[in-house]
């Protein structure tokens, strides 16, 4: 799933390549991707692209006051082309859900797999998108005191809180694993039980991990962002491989539709986490 660094990189790519161009036409190949009906997507036609930004993990293309907002979900992506085919994509054929023509160049919003969760809104204000309206503070805007306030009294696992977009916006499954590894914290630690020093360390690691990923991602071609993300990961998606810090084997906890990775030596005092949704540290 694209997270804060990749979505920020896509926004920067659109600022460099789309701003100043005119939306010639929008083709919708999958009507299910549209979550709004009014104003219609055809209202984007003829509008100049005036900006692009990120709201948590949402991507916002500002078309002279009318916003094309998308959430790429787990398998969605933005594919830019300097010479976009003028032919509209065939509905129900292939991964393309929506195509935006910008007078020669343009981009496709695509989604792989069978679970179609890519979502697009056409709105006058980004806060009209329910998910944006519910976002917590952006992960890169937090200072240590604000993070402490978010953690205070919370009883859920630290991994769960870091990926709760209403608590902190922008962090997903992969970067939460990376942040917790860098901070030497168990994903099963109780969020509200961190002392001040540990909270400060966690805050520093949130900024360090995300800013490093943003720096590596911004100015990359959109097509290279997924590979760039994978190349920078230390534990996420690396089950069985040696931890680059201590050499211990990276372990995994699997859930119904996702998994987390961690290093026992660095994060859990050498203890393995049981691979069950409600399990605690093995005694």
From TrEMBL:
Top-level division of the source organism's lineage: Bacteria
Statement: the UniProt record of this protein carries the keyword DNA repair: yes
Transmembrane segments: none
Catalytic activity: 2'-deoxyribonucleotide-(2'-deoxyribose 5'-phosphate)-2'-deoxyribonucleotide-DNA = a 3'-end 2'-deoxyribonucleotide-(2,3-dehydro-2,3-deoxyribose 5'-phosphate)-DNA + a 5'-end 5'-phospho-2'-deoxyribonucleoside-DNA + H(+); Hydrolysis of DNA containing ring-opened 7-methylguanine residues, releasing 2,6-diamino-4-hydroxy-5-(N-methyl)formamidopyrimidine
InterPro entries: DNA_glyclase_Znf_dom_DNA_BS, FPG_cat, FPG_N, H2TH_FPG, Ribosomal_uS13-like_H2TH, Znf_DNA_glyclase/AP_lyase, Znf_FPG/IleRS
Keyword terms: DNA damage, DNA repair, DNA-binding, Glycosidase, Hydrolase, Lyase, Metal-binding, Multifunctional enzyme, Zinc, Zinc-finger
Residue ranges of domain FPG-type in the record: 234-268
UniProt xrefs under CDD domains: BaFpgNei_N_1
UniProt-listed Gene3D superfamilies: 1.10.8.50, MutM-like, N-terminal
Cofactor: Zn(2+)
One Pfam family recorded for the sequence: H2TH
All residue ranges annotated as the Formamidopyrimidine-DNA glycosylase catalytic domain in the record: 2-93
Family: Belongs to the FPG family.
The protein, known as: Fpg/Nei family DNA glycosylase
The species this protein was found in: Saccharopolyspora rosea
